[in-house]
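Supplementary Methods S3. Input chains for the assembly prediction are listed below.
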Amino acid sequence: MNTSKRRPILAANWKMHKTAAETRGFLTAFLPLVDGLDGREIVIAPPFTALSAASEVLKGNKLVSLAAQNMYFEQEGAFTGEISPIMLREFGVKRVILGHSERRHVFGEGDDLIASKVRAAMENGLLPILCIGEMLEEREAGSTYEVLERQLSTGLSAIDNRGATQVVIAYEPVWAIGTGKTATPTQAQEAHIYIRSWLDSRFGPGIADQIRILYGGSVKPDNINELMALPDIDGVLVGGASLKVEGFAEIVSCQID
Ligand code: PGA
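Predicted structure tokens for the full assembly:
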């Protein structure tokens, strides 16, 4: 990990877990456990309905910031059930997870829709965390890099060199999400190297070196240090193991060189 260039991000994706009251309880217990940590950024992505409660507890906190798990690409309009970037900013949301594998594979979001969301996030002052990753069949068929290439080239199609340094990529192999099956360090590092080389050819080395690439998929307290030791892993996106205060506190307290 080259922390001189890239400050690690340790992010919690709570998915459809925790009410506003539970969110308040979690953060009230969590903040004292992480007080004083430095050299890293901690991000919490609660459900939309808990953003208000979370923003109250996190007010003024420099270490822990807020992300949303999704958004629509319009600022307002007749889009029943959707949430706009402006609505998120009202709660001090800094980042937004886009193209998560559950959005792609459970809710059918395609690369073009995700690209529109990435563009809209940037235009409205939110920093996207663009999730990419292959399914098991795709890995077994040897098409992992082809899938990553497609997800990156479409997902980032509207991003210029200046915007690129603000984007965070999360590599999450679909077969590792929620399955307890983490990618091996070699698999993770290889995919991250591929992603960085793609970023390099698209934006140039000076920019690619600044873009943070997170790993996600069954990250836990007992594998965090091994993952964070890999040179191209600049942080993690954690689902299941981020739901418990002590477990997530242990993850974010990981060794950073
Ligand atoms: P997991 O989820 O840690 O439960 O595997 C990761 C994610 O979906 O972001």
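The longest strand covers residues 127-132. The CA atoms of residues 71 and 110 lie 14 Å apart.
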